[in-house]
Amino acid sequence: MREGRIVRRSATSRKHRWLAGIVLAASVAAVLGHRALAAPKQAQAVPLRAAATFATIPKPAERSRALFKEAGKVILHARCVNCHPAGDQPTQGDSGQPHLPAVVRGPDGHGAVGGLRCQTCHQAENYAPSRVPGHPLWALAPIEMAWQGRTLGQICEQLKDPKRNGGKTLEQIHEHMAKDTLVGWGWNPGSTRTPVPGTQQVFGDLIAAWIETGAECPTP
Ligand code: HEC
Ligand code: HEC
User: Fold this and answer.
1) What is the position in ligand 1's atom list of the atom closest to the CA of 101?
2) Which residue's CA lies nearest to atom 11 of ligand 1?
3) Which of 18, 50, 139, 206 has a beta carbon 3.0–4.6 Å from 109's, enabling a disulfide?
């Protein structure tokens, strides 16, 4: 009897130690897990108004300009402009700093031949440990598609000009804005980069509505 009780007691305390161990392991995991979730901190995208909310503007031309202005929150964003520079080099970050290291456009937009090619560092996907953003088609936009330093009105005019938009029709411009996955990277830029506003769906719908209302350009 006596022996039995001792055995039982030590079994219970062993069980307690076990439980304590599990609780400790669980809280360590929770703390580590929380840390993993909390970092890196990505800035929140600002919202983008849906095309339908512009229906209150009665005149189509006026509505068209307002729609493009709203889409301009994406177009003028650093995520897009950094890759549509006016010069020979990409820029980086929200304030458009020169790209480090210095790389050039090269004959095909992928960097100098025999030099630093974009794909040396930019892989098919964003790579968190080194902050390098990625996409299979990572390259600088051709110089005639430069947006940096231009007003939204100027960018609007050049988007409609087949000589400066890669020979695209307005329908193809819409397709590119709404579906292209390199454009789509703007909503999933990785690391701590600020994503462009809204979603690609809302952005594509704004561009479609802009075209339907006559593709008018805002001034300036
Ligand atoms: C030697 C490596 C290297 C090469 C080569 C390179 N990049 Fe980068 N690039 C980086 C790194 C690293 C970053 C991220 C910097 C950061 O945000 O900390 C970056 C960021 C960028 C960004 C900024 C994204 C943003 O919105 O902040 C653009 C645009 C870019 N690269 C374009 C290019 C293009 C185009 C080429 C080829 C012509 C190229 N890069 C070649 C390493 C490289
Ligand atoms: C990594 C670099 C890169 C980024 C980031 C990028 N672009 Fe581009 N963009 C290109 C290249 C390269 C082309 C030309 C190839 C093509 O037409 O598919 C291009 C072409 C375009 C075109 C074709 C017509 C024209 O006149 O420019 C549009 C529209 C466009 N980009 C929109 C955007 C928008 C919107 C964003 C941001 C959400 C964006 N791009 C971000 C590289 C980039």
Assistant:
1) 1
2) 132
3) 139
